[in-house]
Amino acid sequence: MKAQSSAAPAPQAGVASRTAQSPVTLSIDIGGSGIKAMLLSPAGKPLTERERVTTPAIPTPRAVLRVLDQLRSRLPGFDRVSVGFPGVVKHGVTYAAFNLHPAWANFPLQRELEKRWRQPVRVANDAAVQGYGAVKGKGVELLITLGTGMGTALFTGGRLCPGLELGHHPWRRKTYEDYLGRRGLDKYGKKHWNRLLQAAIAQTAATFNWDHLYLGGGNTKKIAFKLPPNVSIVSNEEGILGGVALWREQST
Q1: pTM over the 0.85 mark
Q2: What is the Cβ-side half-sphere exposure of residue 103, based on CA atoms within 13 angstroms?
Q3: DSSP H helix total and E strand total for the chain
Q4: Domain spans of the chain, in order of start
Q5: Which of the chain's ends, N or C, has fewer CB atoms near its CB within 10 Å?
């Protein structure tokens, strides 16, 4: 007769450990090309593998909500939800999503998810959530995401200065996003895009006097120059891992 192993079975993919201390956070990052989600411990550590699905071709609120329901079913056992959204967000309402769909204007995403999932939800700009996962809480820290569009989040002493949309601020003859988002990369090519990014780093340093600049997003892989000592690249996973820090703020 074989002796039974005393080792506990490994947790299934997509399921939080039953011994994890509450609250467990379902952290979601909505992007122009993909929607990612993961369960996090109270300390912000991953409890599951990251789940990813492609953003719908026509990303209306209804289409994105269907995808979010699918992700929720893959990641049971959470107590609260954090959502990073690629656009202007105030008090859980999405005011604009320039790289998703016009139907997101004035959409109550936070309230809608609370009603659907019967759990507390916080929704914030995706760059802000990524910033929460990256900043050290020392001085003035700026995060810029380089992806489909260009997101920004400014922190002072670890606290978010909400509402910043630097990507849509006039710069040169257009806006920062026109040059540094995917449209700019495709139009100007990698070499010229890198020169524009270097100019933007210098301009934001002169504008905000930041102590540290973080660069995130998929297009950081295209950076081909040496960064200054106070500029660093952060992982895309920070956009999910910052979901716990979002709950440390009193309001979003």
Answers
A1: no
A2: 8
A3: 6, 14
A4: 25-125, 129-240
A5: N
**DSSP state letter for 102:** G
Give the tokens for residue 183.
Answer: 């449209």
User: Above 90 in pLDDT, residue 10?
Assistant: no
Cα 243 from Cα 210, distance rounded (Å) = 23
CATH topology of domain 129-240: Nucleotidyltransferase; domain 5 (3.30.420)
Judge whether residue 189 has pLDDT over 60. yes
Q: Class of 25-125 per CATH?
A: alpha beta
Angle in degrees, CA 73, 45, 163, rounded to 5: 80
Q: Residue 86: which of 130, 132, 26 has the closest Cα?
A: 130
Question: Burial code of 164-201, b = ≥16 C-beta within 10 A, e = fewer?
Answer: bbbbbeebeeebbbbbbbbbbbeeeeeeebbebbeebb
Q: In whole angstroms, how far apart are CA 133 and each of 6, 52, 90, 100, 237? A: 37, 19, 20, 23, 9
